[in-house]
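We modelled the chain as a single entity of 486 amino acids. Its sequence is:
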Amino acid sequence: MNKPSFLALALLFGLALLIGGCRSVAPPGAPDSPWTPPDWARREAARDPEPLPGPPPDLSQPLTLARCVDIALANSPSTRKAWNQARAAAAGLGRAESLRYPRLSVSGSVNYRRDHFNLQTEVLGIDADQDVFTYGPALELTYLLFDFGGVSGGIEEARQALLAANFSFNRSLQNLLLEVQKAYYGLNSAEAALQAAEADVEDARTADEAARERFQAGLSSKLDKLQAGSSYQDALYRLEQARGGLEAARAELTRLLGFPAGTEYEIAGPDAEIPPELPEGDLALLVEDGLRLRPDIAALRAGLRSRQSAASAARSALYPSLNLGGRADHLWYGYNRGPELYDDSYSYTGYLALKWDIFTGFADRELARQAAAERDAAREELAAAELGAAAEIWTRYYAYNTAVRKHTYSRAFLDSARESYELAREGYESGLKSILDLLQSQSALSAARSQLIASERGVFVALAELAHAAGTLTREGAAVPPGAGE
């Protein structure tokens, strides 16, 4: 190599090092100090495109539960992620199936060769050295005839992986539906809790004014006035607490709907009636249907079959494979010195190749063992998930029935507390009841209001959780699982 060529190569090498060094990344310098990103990384982050928001929905009307579900499904990153994972699994299946077809490749080459001949050049009249250039394309076709189940096992592994991804996508939809329903009922409950807190403030204000009037008239002690005032201040405190809870509930639903923080909207209250209890005989049917219908269990079953196919494919590496192939080359020749022996040439090759890796450092054996262990682990994961799903359905079933009964009792409690408060207020104003009787009845009424609100939310959330546990939660709502209540 001459000197100019050497200098040019060295310059290109140094430039490559310089470019690589400009984009190098170093680990944190110490375990007790934060890592500072390099300038180029900050510039790249600044250029990252922001996610494009979808068209804003019509928020002029209060959002029903069904509308909230539709909006969340359209905007949720979690469901889009699961959808893209399923698409990737479908591409993986296509890649595995491609091994069933012949493989055709085209290549091209340029070669330089210098030959030195130990010949009697004076006698033959040719140079002892010869520079030869060859260039041209090549076409090669190969086809796998047999490999003891490696390709078919890989295809079945990818097919079951696609099934698992599809079932996981369905479960991600159900997970989102459950979150939206819980957030919707949570916001509705928070709005009702705010109204109840405002009613509590009004009751406390009435008691406080009555105590002040009786104190000014000399009909009660100063202690009565102070106790009524203390109860009024406590009601104001709980009112602010309810306002904060309302904003927190709104923020949760806003996040699930994919709206920017601070978006103004209203929700319509649920129009569904409180559903009844489920009979005891429905539990076994719910468990049976749940293990059959739940997408996450179906995904694990497909994952187990995928691992079984992977184990079969891994064992095929222990055996030979048979390939059929053919190749065609066309070369042109060029000479810098010496006689021009060839202008161009063609070559055609057909072959039947048997390949068997006799020894690979035990890599094939360990790969088969690894695949078998992963298959056994998937089997145990499925068994654990089935036990967990049955226990979850059992728990959600009794939680729902308990929530229905609690709602019945809380409504009766509210009716009794409201009547008791009215009697205590009238009795205090007429001097027949003490301030303690009034405040106690007022506190009981406040607790009854809160209890009824929580129990109503509890029934709808428990029903949604039961449908989710049984694998029957759909975008139409948390309906009673199939077979229940018949």
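As a brief sanity check on the tokenised model: The first helix runs from residue 3 to 22. The radius of gyration is 39 Å.
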